[in-house]
Structure formats: C-alpha cells, structure tokens
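Narrative of activities, Objective 1.

The group set out to show that a structural description can be obtained from nothing but a protein's sequence at a throughput compatible with the screening campaign. Below is one input-output pair from the validation batch, recorded exactly as produced.
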Amino acid sequence: MKTPRLIQIAHDDPAAIRAELIAGLTAPTATIAPKYLYDALGSRLFAAITELPEYYLTRTEAAIFAAETGRMAEALGPVATLVDLGAGNCEKAARLFAAFQVRRYVAVDISVGFLRESLELLQQRHPALDLLGIGLDFSQTLQLPAEVGAGPRTLFYPGSSIGNFTPAEALTFLRQARGACQGGALLIGVDLIKSVAMLEAAYDDPLAVTAAFNRNLLRHLNFLAGADFAIADWRHCAFFNSAESRIEMHLEAVRETVVRWEGGERRFAGGERIHTENSYKWRADDFAALLERAGFARLRCWTDSREWFAVFAAFS
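Output recorded for this entry:
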C-alpha cells in the first residue's frame, strides 16, 4: 500500500495571523475571514452540517453527480490528476475516482491536521492510488506547487464554496483556477437562488449544528489571537441579504461584553455583530457568464430537476 504525502505550502505566521484577526475585530464593523471557521473541530462540525436535512446543498449536488457522472466523465475524459480544492474529508472526490479513471489525487485544504487523517483513511480504501495532500490557503492566491506535476489537471471545487467569494473575488479566483488547470478543466458546484425560507433554514438549522460551527470560531480566535471571548455571550445569526444575493452569517453579542487580548480590547454592545461568512447565490446564466469572463472557452452545465443547484464543467 502506498503512503500519502503531505506538504505544507504556506507555513503559519502566528504574529501575522494575530495581527489580521485583531484588525478584523477592531474594524468599524468587526469581520473575521471564514477560513478561520475551519480548525480541526470546525472541519468536523461542517462535515456534520452536510448531514442535516435542512442543508440541501450536499444531497442536491450528490444527486446531480449520481445522475450525471457518466456524462461528466465522457465530457472530461480520463482524469490523470484530480485536484480537490477545500478537500475536507475527501469523500466527494472519492466517489468520482472510478468513473473519472483518476490516477492521482491531490487534496488541498487549509486544515492540515484534518487533511492528514482524511488521506490516511482514504489510502486504506485505495491502496494503489497516488495521494498528495497540500496544506494551503488558496483564498487569496491559488498557486499549486510543482509537486502536483505537469500536464492537464481537473480542478474539483464542489459544495458551492465559490459562494464565499464576492463576485469580483470569484472572477479573480476563476482566472487563477483556469491557469492552474494547465489545459485541463474545472468542475465546480454552484448554489442557485431559491426561496428565502429554504436558504435561511440551511444556515440556521433547528439542531443548532451550524450555530456550534459558527460559535466554535470564538474558541479558535481565543487560541490564535490570545483573546478571551466567552462563548455564552454570543449567538449565531444567519439571514439572506436579497440586495447582495447572499446568505450572511454573524456572531451577535447577547449582552454588552468586553473582549480583551494582550495590548487591546473591544467593547461590544448588546446586538452588535461580528461578520463571519458570506455565501453568494447565483443564477446559472450569470455564473456561466462569469466563467466565460474568466477565460474558459467551453462550458457544460448539469442541474437537478428543481434547479436548486448546478455543476459546471469549464474547459480551459
């Protein structure tokens, strides 16, 4: 059995991370980048979210792949290298290995510890497959290392994670993805606009798993920034901003509270929020136009029968 390799591209600079977080906490409207939701526990909590009945995204996307994998494989051809962006537990990509005739799997994720565990389990199920894990934050720049190998690649970005980017940021990312394909293709999942009630339930479930995922960010901030957030002082808040066509997640202070860290503090009034995540929702035609603006020459699109979700194959 082969052994998965793991490389860390951008080594954490604790001082720089702390400075970034404190800048976000002290901004007029406090904001923390959503990548900090994904420590080891946050990654596990998100995996649990995908099992919730309210979180339609995962099962709808899975249904599209179940129905259309054959046609996707025909469109893509044999995939020498499958690069999984934001791989998490690697399960979505693993379901495609046989149909896509994948020879090499590259899992990219910001949470290196969780990625290591996921690849070790995956190697047991696919002992002959070449597995490479890359610890990388691609939210700013998508630049894959030479270890990925030359030649056409299929980049896999499921789950509508593209929704975390503003439209302008999404265009920049897609242009970088086109370059990283090296003549291959991008296979990307996109959540489509639907009823507000359905959208909001997916991000504020009655079991409060999403609330735990969001509030776990405070534990992570305490560790990274040396802050003293009291989790009980904060509640999860999620809603659809129709003007921006996005779900917003916030942490809202339930009472007046002071958060301290070495060298500083911030007083939050009751009801004041920390903005933790956006998830933009798209119309299929608008996202196709964005892919074309990014330089992709040929597109294929598959949706479910209710047009809740879309999977695009975009060829570079």
